[in-house]
Request: fold
Amino acid sequence: MLRTISTLLALRTSITANLLIYYIQKLPIIGKLVKNSLYANLDLKKGVAIIALLLTQLWGFLLRFVYVGLLIFIPVMGLGEDAAEEYRLSQFIHMFTMISFVVAAVSGATVLEPKREKYLAVKMMRLSPKRYMQASLGYRYVTFGVYLLPAMLVFGTLLGASVLEMFLLTLLITLWRIIAEYGHLKLFEKTGMVLIKQTAIVWSVIIIGYAAAYLPLLLGKVLSTNSILMSLPVCIVIIAGGLFAAIQLARYSKYRETVDVASKRDDPLLNLGQMMNDAQKKSVRSKDSDNDLSLNHKHKMERKEGHAYLNAIFFIRHRSLIIGPMNKRLMIIGAVGVAGVILMLLSHGQLFGMQWSLGMIFPFLPLIMYFMSTGENLCKAMFYNCDLSLMRYSFYRSAAYQHFLIRLRRMLSLNLLVAAALGVSLTAVTAAAGGEWLSRELLLFWICVIAMAIFYTVHHLFMYYILQPYSTELNMKNPLYFVLSMAVSSMSGVSIVLRPQADSFTVITVAAALVYVLVSIVLVKKYGSRTFRVK
Reply:
């Protein structure tokens, strides 16, 4: 067991060290000093491996501090600033329970997680699937508790909890996740279903779970989650169940099937075309009917030339990838608008006991527009169906700025349509609530949704052209892409916590959109021909 854990750590450290060397080479000035020969220099690579191991352990602790701090502690402190300490602690434990006990238990399972490491360890290095999974699960949940405990102690004690309470909560979540792991395994054994690959189920649980976590805090309600979870009977059940699940996982003898299922999908050494079909191709494949061009479509293309003609052909022949998601967004917005109008008419303009006001929506606009705007999937479709082949030619890469502007206009028209639908929908809700049709707040709202449509359009296309995150396998390889995406998406949480006034919120949104447009145009024009390439 210890020898297998040592091999597992050596494998992970080696992979991290290679990635570290690779991305250091990409840095300006310093990167030129790091040669490819370093990969084969065992003495120097041992030093890099030690650094990689330390960074991996530090990252484990840092990730838990970010998780507990940003998702739970900051919202509790921001929205419950004037509340009693006991109230904030109850909200903290409730949110932690919903997100960690409910959402994470359904959406994550190490035993069935598609992972390249499983293929390398079991298929290439011929490790026993049982020993590999025992070592992997044992290391996973020991470090899970160790990494999480300091964050829980720091944030929990700041809210008035005792050290013993936070230690017990960390123990409970660790054992509960082991129970969930065993549940995923037994479900697969009995039905053959890999729950974490059931997108509809997983996302339904995520949406419901996060709503259940944050709504009580937003409405000022205190639930009894704390007293239930920390009660003696529940603690006994979770501890006993966790120990039983741990024993069963250690004794399980059919890990070969689970490793095969998990490694097929993420195997980089299997047939590339098959992997692309299984993992990504379905999400960017157009319908056969898209190739049937009407006279109207042909007439539109005849008036274009060069890159405009090329992109016109792409958008017409892949219109199902555009129209389908767009129609779903418009239907969702329309349905919410109709439901909101009915609710306002029946409740005389009241929502959760408060008079409806558009000011209630402003802090949530970044989150709403982030999910409603189209961008990332369309960029992926452009990469797979058009750019992957053409990026190999210098004439296409050198014209990156030209087709960036063409696509910017096209994507902007789509997102402005979403913004208009959202504006009309909430204007109708406001009117049904008895509000003024032409108010200053409504004007600011329309300006905000239009500015956000511009911002998110530029954001997705700028990231695509400057960072080009997709490899030929349609996997995202650029870590900077994840960092910047996380920074932009975190604005949603910051906005909800800070709740800025409509005036200042509008000024910040418009300024951010304008700056992003100018920066993206300048950078893509200057660097696009070099960064927009096949990886």
In short: Residues 265-281 have pLDDT under 50 and may be disordered. The chain has 22 helices and two strands. The chain has two domains: 2-10+90-267, 295-531. The first strand starts at residue 350 and ends at 351.
